Input
Amino acid sequence: MPIQKPIKRNQLRIYMGKKYYRLKRYWAWYTDEKKYAKQIDGSKLKYVIFTHKTPLLRQLKDVDMWLQHNKVTNLNIASKCLNGIVIKPGETFSYWKLLGNTNKRKGYVDGMILHYGKVTTGTGGGLCQLSNLIYWMTLHTPLSVTERYRHSYDVFPDSKRNQPFGSGATCAYNYLDLQIKNETNQTYQLVVYLTDTHLVGEWRAEAPLTRTYEVYEKDHWITQEYWGGYVRHNKIHRKAYNLNQELIEDEYITENNAIMMYEPFLTDGNS
Output
């Protein structure tokens, strides 16, 4: 399917759009009758279901390192708000309902924000690293991702990527949320913290897993659109294995389509 050329919206349209969607989210939180997780428990549940870590500092093309250091400040504040959150059966984890607005009063500082495919700055910038981490870990658990938004732009060329393209979750207060529902009969707990070098996350549970997961990229291709730009596509799938490492199922997770903000290296006209 052809990807439409990005629409350049004026600042008033963007401002009013944010106001509308934020109000819509506040109304949903008040009326949707979901049972949102809110209990923080300082003691960790016994079993580690999945753990992952990502480096705090990365040298990105044409991005000042002070934005990376400010991002660490923001991640430290946000991770403390989420660390230890317990998700009981039937409850839903909402990234933004737990974090709230990322304002200076809470200690957040200016960090990097991707706005319509371009690097800019904003208070609380850089928190997509945390939502990316949580989403990736959740794909390795029985928890259900009920709301997630893909990145619409591919801004930076791959550099030491060890996860499939498009395996993260973008976030913007409060309308681009990450929501995860516990549809199992076990209580789960999110643990997130910073070391000197990495953002670290864990999903823990009351009981050990009876299956393991392998998240992988099934297709990956690049197209040149009619308006001249390039778009990167892929599909994310997940294999589930029992404790004997026998394949139980292979399920489709999502599809990503991102407008590339750099010139791709093409060996032919369509790959």
About this structure: The first helix runs from residue 11 to 31.
